TrEMBL record, chains A, B:
It catalyses: prephenate + NAD(+) = 3-(4-hydroxyphenyl)pyruvate + CO2 + NADH. PANTHER family: PREPHENATE DEHYDROGENASE, PREPHENATE DEHYDROGENASE [NADP(+)]. InterPro entries: 6-PGluconate_DH-like_C_sf, ACT-like_dom_sf, ACT_dom, NAD(P)-bd_dom_sf, PDH_C, PDH_N, Preph/Arog_dehydrog, Prephen_DH. It comes from Nocardioides bizhenqiangii. Its EC number is 1.3.1.12. Pathway: Amino-acid biosynthesis; L-tyrosine biosynthesis; (4-hydroxyphenyl)pyruvate from prephenate (NAD(+) route): step 1/1. The keyword Ion transport does not apply. Keywords: Amino-acid biosynthesis, Aromatic amino acid biosynthesis, NAD, Oxidoreductase, Tyrosine biosynthesis. The keyword Transport does not apply. One of its GO terms (molecular function) is prephenate dehydrogenase (NAD+) activity. It holds the Pfam family PDH_C. This is Prephenate dehydrogenase. It is an enzyme of class 1 (oxidoreductase). It comes from the Bacteria.
């Protein structure tokens, strides 16, 4: 591993993602240099053991640019300008075509390979960092036509050091992929959430788990997401036009009482949910839900999961639905189809109030 | 309770919701009469102890119509036609203006009060029924102008017997409320999910938790939801036009590079997420997420929640994010802000790999 990724690694931008990468490298025994425009971030990240501030004369084998989306292009170009002639540069921004354009004419562009780890947190800053942030997460590696094989190998080695799963995509493919799997869903979730502002409280009293799920991502920072989504304008606008056309079809079907048309649109959506990769990248597994009423105080979830564990049934997913009027939560346990009856019987024998 | 809700209660339609209501009534000592066009459903529900098949000459104090959306109007009218002169009729359909229109001219319309329990399951049929299906759930009671006070009281008594939380709304208000909190979110989730059909597998490899959350409800039965959404066409179409107009604004902002406009739309969505009622109907509580890597086999979740329980920190929500390439799941625990550090320290002391 250290053959493919010799030190030191320089991390530009000691926020959540940059500091987490630095911690993963240090854990693997790779020397890390840190730089940040914020002296406080630099001090905090160094204090966490993520590396030492970069000094004049330091030359990195790999520079990882982890700055906000709007500053990626200039920061990547600056890294190519100032680094050694064998230094490879990558970035971890969530769009890939725009930063590449910013460095496409650079004489050292062959030493740049963009990348994008699919991990984050609603928290930010170095204090939220962890060497395990990327464990098992997809991490896109986006080589452009002029990238050198050495550069690609070195970035792949970083992904391996971080415990992530490499996904090879061209920059343009990557941007189309995240428009579909992240940016357009985020925008639509935000539009749905927007309809809830100003609604009467007695109307919102009917809010169930469904709309909470749909709108959860819309709680993200508007400034950050306007940079992310705005930085991928071409792919997002193209897909958003398709969604707008289908929304017009849905509106016409609803307004005209065209049940068959409405059902066909909903069936198209159902097919889409089945296209999402399942556990461990395999096909989606058919699951059944088991609902359990759980008193809302510490220890009850532990008791529940002890009883679930004793039943031998593996849990695929869990949700907690706090109901609005009572000191009880409804826990939804998703289990493989065919295992629900066994789990229900096991939990009921322990006194839990359940239903499917 | 039995003064306000004398027996027998007749349940028309022994599916999931009807049979669950019947079981709740029987548990409260109220005699239940069952009817269903399916002899098999009737036999199953009776066998579960939900009541006895209605016989000629039986007269109910309350008829609960629990048939599919497209048959509600005729079934309510039939119940008013054939029931006793003191019999109150309600239904549990998910739209309320359309069935009311169907019986508005009926001479006994004063004995009808529509209602809507906010509970269900992806399962259907009497075998999935439970007397606890409605515990703690909102249940809208939708009196129309001509409804008698006796009728309203009797339906409210049913809601209480079922352990649900009554929410008083006019039929028109109810339909606007569910368009906003359920039908339009469902449609938009379905449109987002539809964009995933036919996407390249290597693009879908970047799928994260966000798009899974956004599209989860779109896995619902298209036939049922086309009836539900199509039956609320006026309220849905009105709100859907508002969403379409905002989508056009979003599209223009993205295509024109108008970052401020995009950020403003996203900020509007963020405000909407904060309008959703929190735990127990109170204000939304600020939570922090703690992520824990959990080996993917039975018993590990039990061990985790035992350690969580021992820490004394209450869990507000749980999600499991199965990552695509590894035999490990990431469990996200949401806890009150200010409790995350304590939980992290407690879990790390037990050997768990965590990050915020």
């Amino acid at each position: 591993m250290s053959d493919l990724l010799p030190g030191p690694v320089e991390v530009v931008g000691a926020g959540l993602v940059g500091t987490s990468i630095a911690l993963a490298c240090q854990r693997a025994g790779i020397d890390v240099l840190l730089s940040d425009t914020s002296a406080e971030h630099l001090r905090t990240a160094s204090g966490l053991g993520a590396g030492r501030p970069k000094a004049p004369g330091d030359v990195a084998a790999l520079v990882v640019v982890a700055v906000p989306p709007d500053h990626l292009g200039e920061a990547i170009a600056a890294a190519l300008d100032t680094a050694g002639e064998d230094t490879v540069v990558t970035d971890v921004g969530s769009v890939k075509a725009a930063p590449l354009e910013a460095v496409a004419g650079h004489p050292a562009a062959s030493r740049y390979v963009g990348s994008h780890p699919m991990a984050g947190s609603e928290r930010s800053g170095p204090l939220a960092a962890s060497a395990d942030l990327f464990t098992g997460r997809p991490w896109a590696i986006c080589r452009h036509d002029g990238a050198s094989a050495t550069a690609v190998r070195r970035v792949a080695a970083l992904v391996e050091v971080c415990g992530a799963v490499p996904v090879m995509l061209t920059p343009a493919e990557h941007d189309k992929a995240v428009a579909r799997t992240s940016h357009v869903p985020h925008l639509l979730a935000s539009l749905v959430a927007g309809t809830l502002t100003g609604a009467a409280p007695e109307h919102l009293a009917l809010t169930g788990q469904g709309v909470r799920d749909v709108t959860r991502v819309a709680a993200g920072d508007p400034t950050l997401y306007s940079q992310i989504i705005g930085g991928n304008s071409k792919a997002v606008a193209g897909l958003l036009r398709e969604v707008r056309d289908r929304l017009d079809l849905a509106l016409a079907a609803v307004a005209d009482g065209d049940r068959a048309g409405l059902e066909s649109l909903l069936a198209h959506g159902l097919a889409g949910t089945r296209a999402i990769p399942g556990k461990h990248g395999g096909p989606v597994q058919a699951v059944s839900a088991v609902h359990v009423a759980v008193p809302d105080h510490p220890g009850e979830l532990a008791r529940l999961f002890a009883d679930v564990g004793a039943s031998g049934v593996n849990i695929e997913d869990v949700r907690i639905d706090h109901d609005p009027g009572r000191p009880v939560g409804l826990v939804e346990l998703d289990v493989a189809e065919g295992r629900a009856e066994h789990l229900l019987a096991a939990l009921e024998s322990k006194g839990w109030v359940t239903h499917r």
